[in-house]
């Protein structure tokens, strides 16, 4: 990790036990199961999120016998395991590792794999498989894992020969990590794990069909610099690819040097400090009004590691109508996919920015920034205060105040996710983790647990999970993992007793028919639920209780704390661009429903 | 939450359907639709093949013809894919194809000069009266008899698709029993190996 991300602490205990160097080779033939364990050690894996079963029982046996340098975390559900690996990967920039058995173990990972695919998160998922001679026979706990996952993985391997195992593992990590990162599945038939071969972990692998983008084209970079120099209303539109490339520091320098305002996507939050006057917060469906206004009036959009997702652009043909577009991305297949681009620079975002930065001169953008300030004052992000009711936005603001932004915040999916994006005001890359592309409810808690494992020994910053009452119960069982490892994570449940985001759409677009979104009669007592899992459970129902409850939660540092924030259910996320509408048609407050459908 | 977005452009099928129905295409839908012949070098594994075909199906393309076979290197296969679609979307699909780890080279032959051939086996009924006429036609098309029974003949014919289709049409009145077509294989006309050919995919368009 770079120093521009979460600061490292030296005091904390090291993650890997330092006793011995990993064995990278042995001439004696050893079993596939042992090769697997040795290979993970040699790869430098710190944590494996796994769940045992018949097809991988020999690997578990070797873990017990060899006591490897990595730690195995027993998850409670394989979906939780994949989200933990994602949270770990997002917080550290390293590859997350999952190990599950065949059949149901493998199918339980599907949602997490798809989530990692959509959000370009590097994870490697090892799945057990029935013996090769039984594949295709509908054997007990057989599924065609490679077939099922083909369209949601960056790549996948079925290992048919124990002699291919070590290099396949190397290749899997290489593919997951490099280029546009993504999930890789390695399917391990049981007989391959039992067969023997000498072990040698290759230093590198060559995959002839896997070409990484070369150095960026200097001609295009010059062109971009010229476009920036010629522009009068430039805007940086920053996505998660900037953070993946560890380029947040350069992006910040670029913006400040040329005085270009910055808006980020959901995954770009943290790439540019939101307390900087140049920051416009998030853009898109639930972005700020002023960010979207800036998009609609800009004469140059500089897209950095972003992919013009439909949640960002709304109706594409009326998006940024006056702007030329520069697009910097590592993935050539993203270029001009949704929005035609005037200047495309394919390459590593960090490399591109390194070369672009010296070519860009300080600019006079005073007039443009003044216009944006006018928009900002005209329609700021705001919500009702002072009526004694507890609202999610207030809770999030107080968590922000409690941490000063020095925390890793992991959210679930729904209204609370958007409010966190709007009100937390992120300062540092890799401090905001969420499920954006797939929008997976149930992501938050396990991803927070994974992030906490990733931060162990690296940072003292707390991990805060902000979840909805609906999404929390989708993977609530993973509290058991957090408690077992005494992870001091803070889980703030924004409990509106509703599937709030769906309720919002039902109110706005379906004439208040709240079909199957009311959870008030069936929600569990979250305090008791926490206690049942050996966690601390707390509750706040009024604004004046929030700070005291947070103080209490922050005193606990030997186990997870779950706080049930009982907030009003009627609150809506504003502003909002209705799905399929143009970015200039933002709803900024509650109107009569029919005014905009 | 997922709701349908207004699609910025239509799928090739939607465009063709609209054209057939005589409906006007709106601006933005007015993109160029052409037939594309695409050659792909890939790892000689079934998984590689499936990944390539999946990409087309995921984007809603119908494949008019797919052929695959080993090359001079037995670990490498070559696929020829013929599909009709919106040029811009095909361009994207090509880049996505290129991104697959199992593909070694991807090239859209359309637009350049290339040879395209197809093999056809055709079994047709004959009688003593029709036999001479059938043989005459086959000769004009350079068809070869590969099997003959007292009342059927099987021809082997190679050539561009138009030739094959013309032959099939002429045989129809005689009573075709079976037709097997290989689908098209294609190769760029040039002296160089295609691996040295400039990669058209990364030549990103800049019009707006
Ligand atoms: C697995 C899954 N199922 C359904 C949805 C659709 N969905 C999106 S937000 C939402 C409501 C979430 O409710 P809650 O967790 O209480 O969060 P809130 O919106 O109330 O903050 C639903 C059902 C989804 N995103 N993921
Ligand atoms: Mg809720």
Topology:
The complex is a heterodimer of chains A (597) and B (208).
Chain A: E1 25-31, H1 32-43, E2 47-50, H2 57-66, E3 71-74, H3 78-92, E4 96-100, H4 104-107, H5 110-118, E5 123-129, H6 145-149, E6 155-158, H7 165-177, E7 184-189, H8 190-194, E8 196-200, H9 218-230, E9 234-238, H10 240-244, H11 248-258, E10 262-264, E11 279-282, H12 289-297, E12 300-304, H13 310-313, E13 324-329, E14 343-346, H14 349-356, H15 366-378, H16 392-403, E15 408-411, H17 415-423, E16 432-433, H18 444-455, E17 463-468, H19 469-472, H20 479-484, E18 490-495, H21 500-509, H22 526-532, E19 536-540, H23 543-555, E20 561-566
Parallel strand pairs in A: 2-3, 2-4, 4-5, 5-7, 6-7, 9-10, 9-12, 10-11, 12-13, 13-14, 15-16, 15-17, 17-18, 18-20, 19-20
Antiparallel strand pairs in A: 1-8
Helix pairs in contact in A: 1-2, 1-7, 3-5, 3-18, 11-14, 12-15, 16-17, 16-23
Chain B: H1 12-20, E1 33-43, H2 46-58, E2 63-70, E3 76-86, H3 87-99, E4 103-108, E5 114-125, H4 131-140, E6 144-148, E7 152-159, H5 161-171, E8 176-188
Fold and architecture overview:
The complex is a heterodimer of chains A (597) and B (208). Chain A is an alpha/beta fold and 597 residues long. Chain A has 3 domains: 10-201, Thiamin diphosphate (ThDP)-binding fold, Pyr/PP domains (Rossmann fold, 3-Layer(aba) Sandwich); 218-378, Rossmann fold, CATH 3.40.50; 392-566, 3-Layer(aba) Sandwich (Rossmann fold). In chain A, strands 3-2-4-5-7-6 form a 6-stranded parallel sheet, with helices on both faces. In chain A, strands 11-10-9-12-13-14 form a 6-stranded parallel sheet, with helices on both faces. In chain A, strand 15, helix 17 and strand 16 (432-433) form a beta-alpha-beta unit. In chain A, helix 16 packs across helix 17. Chain A starts with 24 loop residues before the first strand and ends in a 31-residue tail after the last strand. Chain B is globular, with a radius of gyration of 21 Å. In chain B, the strands form 2 sheets. Chain B has a 4-stranded antiparallel sheet. Chain B has a 4-stranded antiparallel sheet with strand order 6-7-5-8. The relative contact order of chain B is 0.16. Chain B has 2 domains: 34-112, ACT domain (Alpha-Beta Plaits, 2-Layer Sandwich), CATH 3.30.70.260; 115-187, ACT-like. Chain A, domain 2 (Alpha-Beta Plaits, 2-Layer Sandwich). The longest helix of chain B is centred in the N-terminal third of the chain and has 13 residues, at 46-58. Chain B has 208 residues and is an alpha+beta fold. Chain A binds chain B through residues 146-147, 150-151, 154-156, 158, 175, 180, 207-211, 310, 315-317, 324-325, 331-333, 335-338, 340-344, 346, 439, 501-502, 505, 579-580, and chain B through 1-6, 8, 27-28, 42-43, 47, 50-51, 54, 58, 88, 91-92, 95-96, 98-104, 201-202, 204-208. Magnesium ion binds at residues 414, 468-470, 496, 498-500 of chain A.
């Amino acid at each position: 990790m770079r120093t521009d991300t979460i600061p490292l602490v030296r005091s904390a205990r090291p993650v890997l036990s330092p006793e011995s160097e990993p064995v990278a080779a042995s001439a004696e033939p050893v079993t596939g199961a042992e090769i697997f364990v040795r290979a993970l050690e040699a790869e430098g894996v710190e944590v494996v999120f796994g769940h045992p079963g018949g097809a991988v029982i020999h690997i578990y046996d070797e873990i017990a016998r060899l006591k490897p340098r990595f730690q195995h975390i027993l998850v409670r559900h394989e979906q939780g395991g994949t989200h933990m690996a994602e949270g770990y990967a997002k917080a550290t920039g390293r590859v997350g590792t999952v190990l599950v058995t065949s059949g149901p173990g493998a199918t339980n990972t599907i949602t997490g794999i798809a989530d990692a695919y959509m959000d370009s998160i590097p994870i490697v998922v090892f799945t057990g498989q029935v013996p090769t001679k039984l594949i295709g026979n509908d054997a007990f706990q057989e599924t065609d894992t490679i077939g099922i996952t083909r369209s949601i993985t960056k790549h996948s391997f079925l290992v048919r020969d124990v002699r291919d195992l070590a290099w396949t593992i190397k290749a899997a990590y290489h593919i997951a990590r490099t280029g546009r990162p993504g999930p890789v599945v390695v399917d391990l038939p049981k007989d391959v794990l039992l067969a023997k071969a000498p072990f040698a972990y290759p230093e590198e692998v060559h995959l002839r069909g896997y070409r990484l983008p070369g150095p960026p084209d200097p001609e295009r970079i010059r062109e971009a610099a010229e476009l920036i120099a010629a522009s009068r209303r430039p805007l940086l539109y920053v996505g998660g690819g900037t953070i993946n490339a560890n380029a947040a520091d350069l992006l910040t320098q670029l913006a400040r040097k040329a005085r270009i305002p910055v808006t980020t996507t959901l995954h770009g939050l943290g790439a540019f400090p939101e307390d900087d006057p140049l920051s416009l917060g998030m853009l898109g469906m639930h972005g700020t009004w002023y960010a979207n206004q800036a998009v609609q009036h800009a004469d140059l959009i500089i897209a950095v590691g972003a992919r013009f997702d439909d949640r960002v652009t709304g109706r594409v043909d009326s998006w940024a109508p006056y702007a030329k577009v520069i697009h910097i991305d590592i993935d050539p297949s993203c270029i001009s996919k949704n929005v035609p681009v005037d200047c495309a620079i394919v390459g590593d975002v960090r490399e591109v920015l390194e070369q672009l930065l010296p070519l860009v001169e300080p600019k006079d953008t005073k007039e443009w920034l003044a216009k944006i300030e006018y928009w900002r004052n005209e329609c700021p992000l705001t919500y009702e205060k002072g009526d004694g009711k507890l609202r999610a936005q207030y809770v999030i603001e107080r968590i922000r105040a409690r941490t000063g932004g020095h925390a890793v915040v992991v959210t679930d999916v729904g209204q609370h996710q958007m409010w966190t994006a709007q009100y937390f005001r992120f300062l540092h890359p890799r401090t905001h983790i969420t499920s954006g592309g797939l929008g997976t409810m149930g992501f938050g808690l396990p991803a927070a647990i994974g992030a906490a494992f990733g931060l162990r020994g690296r940072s003292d910053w707390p991990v805060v999970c902000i979840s909805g009452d609906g999404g929390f119960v989708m993977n609530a069982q993973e509290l058991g993992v957090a408690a077992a490892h005494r992870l001091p994570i803070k889980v703030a449940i924004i409990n509106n007793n509703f599937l709030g985001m769906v309720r919002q759409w039902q109110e706005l677009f379906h004439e208040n028919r709240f079909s199957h979104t009311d959870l008030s009669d069936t929600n569990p007592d979250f305090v008791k639920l926490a206690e049942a899992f050996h966690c601390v459970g707390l509750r706040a129902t009024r604004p004046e209780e929030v700070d005291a409850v947070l103080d209490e939660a922050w005193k606990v540092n030997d186990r997870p704390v779950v706080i049930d924030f009982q907030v009003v259910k009627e609150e809506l996320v504003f502003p909002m661009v209705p799905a399929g509408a143009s970015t200039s048609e933002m709803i900024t407050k509650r109107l009569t429903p029919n005014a905009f459908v | 939450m997922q709701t349908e977005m207004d699609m910025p452009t239509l799928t090739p099928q939607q465009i063709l359907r609209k054209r057939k129905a005589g409906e006007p295409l709106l601006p933005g839908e007015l993109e160029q639709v052409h037939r594309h012949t695409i050659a792909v070098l890939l790892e000689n594994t079934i998984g590689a093949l499936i990944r390539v075909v999946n990409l087309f199906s995921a984007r809603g393309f119908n494949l008019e013809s797919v052929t695959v076979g080993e090359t001079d290197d037995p670990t490498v296969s070559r696929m020829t894919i013929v599909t009709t679609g919106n040029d811009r979307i095909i361009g994207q699909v090509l880049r996505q194809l290129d991104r697959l780890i199992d593909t070694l080279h991807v090239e859209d032959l359309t637009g350049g000069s290339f040879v395209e051939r197809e093999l056809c086996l055709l079994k047709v009924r004959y009688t003593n009266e029709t036999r001479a006429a059938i043989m005459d036609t086959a000769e004009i098309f350079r068809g070869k008899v590969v099997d003959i029974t007292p009342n059927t003949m099987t021809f082997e014919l190679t050539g561009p698709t138009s030739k094959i289709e013309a032959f099939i049409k002429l045989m129809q009145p005689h009573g075709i029993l079976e037709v097997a077509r290989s689908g098209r294989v294609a190769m760029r006309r040039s002296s160089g190996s295609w691996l040295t050919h400039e990669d058209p995919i990364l030549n990103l368009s800049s019009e707006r």
